[in-house]
Amino acid sequence: MVKKNNFSKNDAIAEIKKWTPPRLHLGKESYVDFMAYDPLTGKMKRKKIMVGRIKGRRAQREYADGIIQRLTEKLLGGWNPWMDSNKTAEYTNFDVVCQDYKTYIARLTKEGSLREESFVSYCSYMKIFEEWAAKSVKYVFQLDKQLISKFLDYVFIDRGNSIQTRNNYLAWLRTFCSWLLQRGFVNENPTAGLVLVNKRNRDKNRTTIDDYDLKRVHSYLESNNKYFLLACYFLHYLFVRPREMSFLRVGDISAKSSALTLHGNGTKNRKSAVLTVPKKVMALMIELRVLSEPSSYYLFSNDFKPGEERCSEKQFRDYWNRHVRKDLGLPAELKFYSLKDTGITNMLKSNMDVLSVRDQARHSSISITDMYTPTNVDKINKAILDYEDEL
């Protein structure tokens, strides 16, 4: 776990401000010198200003006194001769910058500009990156393309993660480095020129749940938590994403017209939509009497019951992982979101027309819906087996 850094940015560059008072040296060579911390070497380095061109010792002393006074004032003000005064931010401690970034994305999430799921992913990426870079990066200016490239190799080769995971890290690093660039922490984006690895001839990985395990999930939740079963229904039959579910209110559901209204401020594409509520889903809501609650209540509040408090989408994943998947012994690749992929796939397999599935899933085109059509057919089709034409 990354420890919270309590230093401010001013504290972070305190080490760079180390210096010794300027002094005059008279002799064969007359000069004023002082020591100042060089962040590139991590050591104190001598700076000399020659005064030998001034004729006469008295004149040299008077000239040197002025230099010493001006240098002392500048050094007291934080000036460092070994770094560009306009690029002080580049010498900020890396861990301080990381903490600032996490504070920034937390605020974005709170304001609704960043999805909670993305926030969780970004924090995870940052944690791994911080731990890996701890030994080689002290100041943010040390982030360069070579270091980023080495980290991506670490993710793909040393950690053994997939190409997709490696690409996900690069996508996040582009966002992070863009944030650094905009705030002057780096003078160029170190991810520029780094490309995503092409996954040739690989379909998007959509893990579906087979009928046997679907029945087990239903039986388990019917006995243990019908309110979470309702959440599963919303994901499986209405294709409402976990974050979107966290914004649903009781008043968004019309029992009379069997419709659910999604409002744009809580949807992935920021567009409002009206979805059909299947009879099976409506029957469970009536059984649980959720529609009798105040219309302003969130549909899935604490314990997945209607309530005044909006709960994070994380509660859906947590309950699935800690209870459903664990108790039923389901494999790790079967995630809560797999219910949505399974629902779309099974609806297509049931010979539901593709336009209806497209609209219910809110896909922008049929081609996206078609991606859910099973292509790994390993059983013969009875209809084709018995088919014959006039030829």
What is shown here, in short?
About 45% of the residues lie in helices and about 5% in strands.
Report on the architecture of this protein.
This protein has 391 residues and is mostly helical. The protein has 3 domains: 9-77, no CATH class; 94-183, DNA polymerase, domain 1, CATH 1.10.150; 211-371, hpI Integrase, Chain A (Orthogonal Bundle). The protein is 46% helix and 7% strand. It contains 15 helices and 6 strands. The protein has helices spanning 9-12, 57-76, 94-110, 116-133, 145-158, 163-182, 211-224, 226-237, 242-247, 279-288, 314-328, 338-349, 354-361, 366-370, 382-385; strands at residues 23-25, 31-38, 43-50, 253-254, 259-262, 273-276. The chain has a 3-stranded antiparallel beta sheet, covered by helices on one side. The protein has a 3-stranded antiparallel beta sheet with strand order 4-5-6, with no helix packed on it. Helix 3 (94-110) runs antiparallel to helix 4, helix 5 (145-158) runs antiparallel to helix 6 (163-182) and helix 7 runs antiparallel to helix 8.
Write the topology of this structure.
Layout: H1 9-12, E1 23-25, E2 31-38, E3 43-50, H2 57-76, H3 94-110, H4 116-133, H5 145-158, H6 163-182, H7 211-224, H8 226-237, H9 242-247, E4 253-254, E5 259-262, E6 273-276, H10 279-288, H11 314-328, H12 338-349, H13 354-361, H14 366-370, H15 382-385
Helix pairs in contact: 3-4, 5-6, 7-8, 8-10, 8-12
